[in-house]
Amino acid sequence: MAPPPLSMEPTGWFQVAWSPEISVGAVHKMKYFGREMVAWRSASGRVSVFDAYCEHLGAHLGYGGHVDGENLVCPFHGWEWNAEGRNVCVPYENHPNKGRRIRSYPTVERNAAVWIWYDVERREPYFGVPDIFADFSDGKTADDYYPPFPAATIYRPGLELHPQYVMENGVDFAHFKFVHKTPFMPDFTRHDFSGPVSYVDFTIAFEEGATLESATSGVESINAGLGVSVTRSWGMIDNRTMPAVTPVDETTSDVRFTVWIGRKPGEETAPDITEYGKIMSGFVIEQFEADIHIWSHQRYSDPPALSRKEFAGFRALRQWATQFYPESEPTDTRPGESEELVTVPKSELDRLRAAASLGS
């Protein structure tokens, strides 16, 4: 992938695991946004995500660190850190080190997944992770679907693609016919990019011979920032999907995809996904893998050579996406143009201004 002129540190919620991967007492190693991290689950079941290194002498908490009750214990000297990353125990002192704190990330478990809030300026979350059931209006719950993990999921680590590609897919009506082999191009019935959570709905069908005029099926999607997308399909295989792309470093991302398939009559109480559920989810996953094949070899075109019909959707999506990028990052670089940007910390800027005023 040619590196896109987009930051790989956008603000938002990003999936870092599926909930069942982090059992009580587990310490899960990972790397996202160029930072070593650990996720761990306390005795009460709460999941926390930290930067990986102990603030005492820098031991990596993912190598030998363990959970004791509600705290994460460093393997090097036994210092204990609570769910907020604060030191609560130095075992050979009579008080904790209240001045040090490991960076922790706001964490939410929803839709069978673990999400962290990432923001380079460390602002608190200002929008949430949509619920793949409650936030659609059909009244269905998780009990109406087979449990997706692990059989109805895919995980593709370290791919050279950007999270924005998934969001752009949602307004790219033309690709459905050529990538997904639909009999016609979809008709978009809703494009709402008025806030950090956007909504895109369209009419689509996969049956051979179907036409736009005769179609009785479609997709509704809710997109919270660039890291969260949930969809509900209607009038076709009863399924909901959740693609998630989380940046690992400046060039690669981990891709996860989760599929919920509606239960077949007679299988309402099956504890695990059945053969029917596996087959149906396999069809949905096959479509998503066709997208991944394109994205992982794609160059981000800016400005793109859009047709007249494509212009409004892509323009709205890309304008919406700019709100999630650090202000110092260019988001509309033209081929042949270059700018050298220098980022100066505020403290240094204030010092330079003070020095300039003294000199005058």
Automatic annotation (TrEMBL):
Rieske domain: residues covered: 13-116
Biological process annotations from GO: cholesterol metabolic process; lipid catabolic process
Molecular function GO labels: 2 iron, 2 sulfur cluster binding; metal ion binding; monooxygenase activity; oxidoreductase activity, acting on paired donors, with incorporation or reduction of molecular oxygen
Alphabetical keyword list: 2Fe-2S, Iron, Iron-sulfur, Lipid degradation, Lipid metabolism, Metal-binding, Oxidoreductase, Steroid metabolism
UniProt cross-references to CDD domains, sorted A to Z: Rieske_RO_Alpha_N
Domain of life: Bacteria
Name of the protein described by the UniProt record: Rieske-type oxygenase
Classification lineage: Bacteria, Bacillati, Actinomycetota, Actinomycetes, Mycobacteriales
